[in-house]
Amino acid sequence: MAVVSLEEFKRLKTKVENAKREADRAEGAYEAAMKRLGELGFEDVEHANARLAELRDELNTAEEEYQNKLDEFNEKWEEKLA
Fold it and tell me: How many helices (H) and strands (E) would you count in the chain?
């Protein structure tokens, strides 16, 4: 068995304590995020991502419709707008 110096032991102990604190923070952030998803009506991240994809599709469709209507308007009223 290898002998570890006191300084090496302290360094490793500090490293472990820092890793534990970071893991605790990450776990807290995860729990908060999952709670917020639940408050928004989502069971998990996959459901939230699916809804996000739906909303993006709806947005793209609405933007296309808007642009088409704007183009139609501009064509119809081009002479009056100039």
Answer: 2, 0
Write down the pTM of the prediction.
0.64
**Token digits of residue 12:** 């490793």
Indicate whether 33 belongs to any domain.
no
Position 78 in a domain:
yes
3-38: per-residue pLDDT in tens? 889 999 999 999 999 999 999 999 999 999 999 999
Supply the pLDDT for residue 62.
98
As a whole number, the mean pLDDT across the chain is 95
Please give the tally of structural domains in the chain.
1
Q: Within its chain, how far is the Cα of 7 from the centroid?
A: 41
**Angle formed at CA 36 by CA 30 and CA 39, multiple of 5 degrees:** 145
Q: For residue 67, is it within any domain? A: yes
Per the listing, tokens 């820092």 go with 18
**Mean per-residue pLDDT, 66-76:** 96
* Residue 15 domain flag: no
